[in-house]
Amino acid sequence: MQYVSTRGGVPAATYTEIILQGLAKDGGLFVPVQYPQVSKETLKSWRGLNYAQLATAVTALFAKDMNRSTIAHLCESTYTSETYDHGREGTDFSKIVPLVWLDKEVGILELSNGPTLAFKDMAMQYLGALFECVLSKRQEKLNILGATSGDTGSAAEYAMRGREGIKVFMLSPKGRMSDFQRAQMYSLLDGNIFNIAVEGSFDDAQDIVKAVSADLEFKTKYSIGTVNSINWARIAAQVVYYFSGWLQAAENEDEEVAFSVPSGNFGDVLAGWIAKQMGLPIRQLIVATNENDVLYEFFKTGRYKVRDSAHTYVTSSPSMDISKASNFERYVYDICGKDPERVCELWNELKTKGEFLLDGPEWERVKASGVCSARSTHEERIERIRKSWYEHQFLVDPHTADGLNAAYKMKIDGVKTICLETALPAKFGKTIVEAVGFEPPVPNGYEGISEKPQKVVDMPANVQLVKEFIEQNT
Ligand SMILES: Cc1ncc(COP(=O)(O)O)c(C=O)c1O
Ligand SMILES: N[C@@H](CCOP(=O)(O)O)C(=O)O
Asked: Which residues form a coiled coil (predicted)?
């Protein structure tokens, strides 16, 4: 299988080539020329598989230049109930991503059972093993430059710490993450991990990652790669849990289900979009936003208008405080009939005017795509956490609460709706206390995390300074 850029400016490449590059050299995102197809018979045959076997089957469809036994080995060693077990009472960790029903038609897919208590671990743990394997074969090294709004950072660092040939430079928005998220990331003292707190929002941090990647000489000289969801390997690994969620929910191969996805950088919901394109019976994909509702606005009106840092609010679901969603480009590419020229035109408009509008047949395609959106506010989030606890005895984090709110707002009668659990409540103690009046339980291994020493460098949001920091530390 070959991959091309959404902007059409680079030669086609294979899976193992694109995963080390991250962003394409023309500034676009890599996408497969065609999505692999999964027939109903194949879906049926996947019913008995455990998560590692399912991950092998799905990944093998995307990683055509990798040996299947290598993929199987990586998946078997990644998706174990030892790694995905934080000790929550009553959870069936053997399923890795168990589906729990809150009521007859609304369920929660537990994606936050991994080492850093967020859904990012689902792909990131696999990426750690994958990168090490590919790099050692090629005898290469990789300097990962990433941006985080709170969860990608620790997931990447926990997955990459101590790995041969890999260094991680992670940019986080200063003062915009929860205390627990900060402590979780900054308390890693490994020699190959570098935390940089930048002034500004996640979008400013992500712009720096893209600007550094756009300097091709620097990118090549310092072997810069990415672990954000601009890297296709992240998306491919996230597609797997949509299959698992559907397999746990659907009673037969014709049953369509819906997914509600707490969204920020649009990577998670994009993985659902890809699963749907592959043939997974998905009726509806609900893009859940918080007060940073650029995506909600788009799915209501067709207008995509990004916001600057000053208008990207600090909310009680901080990991979703994003106004420039990278992966939205991959969805628009599909909506525009996989036409790179049209994508370039739209993204040039975005650059010059700060917005674009999809209308006519393109807007009709958006409306027919099965993707819709709902937003929730702080008050609704608090109320949902409370309700979920007192009515269903299930404590959700603020992001999952946004997902549940969107699920209940957009639900179609008779269609099972699965909300993705994107983080555990322990990461957002202050908001949980506001909602239910008690501190969330501390998962295994996180006792006393806030007392540990922290390692972080403060920096203005400046591309040149970040480059110099990388130069000094490689
Ligand atoms: C807890 C949590 N929920 C939701 C999101 C949004 O996911 P995505 O950026 O893939 O849209 C993130 C960050 O990515 C997150 O960390
Ligand atoms: N919410 C994320 C932001 C980055 O998203 P990614 O999926 O593109 O890595 C975070 O928590 O860091």
From this structure: none
